[in-house]
Amino acid sequence: MEKNSIIEKNPKVQIAIENLYSAFKIAEYGRVYTWDEIAKIMDEPTLAHNQVYYVGIKVNALLMANDQRVSKTIHGYGKKILNPTDHTGAAREKINQSTKKYVEAGKILMATNMEMLNTDEQKRVSDDARKFRTLELFTSELLKKKKLSAGKDGRKELIFDVVKYLSDE
């Protein structure tokens, strides 16, 4: 058993995770799999589409935790085993997606009619807005100061900075 493993209640999903993980952890970097190939590797033809997607997420978590590998979904096609040189780009894509969510959250908070809220609700909205803004500024500054690295030490350093900041709040 791997140092980090996933145990599922559904035995068919468990088998699918184990099968796909076994294939992906030894696959060549840059290898692209179609959804049909992935289904054959999983060897569980009765899995629903959402279960196949779920298995892919769990396998990616195992790859990152155990093997310093990342699989990326290619919308409408399948999955790709990323080269280590592509990990930074994939991380930046996630950051860009998060930034869009920050903007959406900010718009929701800005659209709140404070006059229609009681004192406790107003305080909660103000606190949320402050946390949102603090996290947004922190992320921006952190990205300016740090380069996201595919190297093990750079990754650990970034994670430690985030954990330290959040634990200080």
Folded structure, characterized:
By secondary structure, this protein is mainly α. It has two domains: about 10-80, Arc Repressor Mutant, subunit A (Orthogonal Bundle), CATH 1.10.10; about 85-169. The protein is about 65% helix and about 5% strand. The chain is built from six helices and three strands. The chain has helices spanning about 10-25, 35-40, 50-65, 85-110, 120-145, 150-169, and strands at about 30-35, 70-75, 80. A three-stranded antiparallel beta sheet has the order 1-3-2. The longest helix has 27 residues, at about 120-145. The model is unreliable at about 150-155 (pLDDT under 50).
Overall SS class: mainly alpha
Supply the number of helical segments.
6
What overall geometry do the principal axes of the alpha carbons give? elongated
Q: Helix proportion of residues, in percent?
A: 55-70%
Along the chain, the helix and strand elements come as HEHHEEHHH
Total DSSP E strands: 3
Largest sheet: 3 strands, antiparallel
How much strand? 5-15%
- Supply Rg: 20 Å
Spatial strand arrangement across the major sheet: 1-3-2
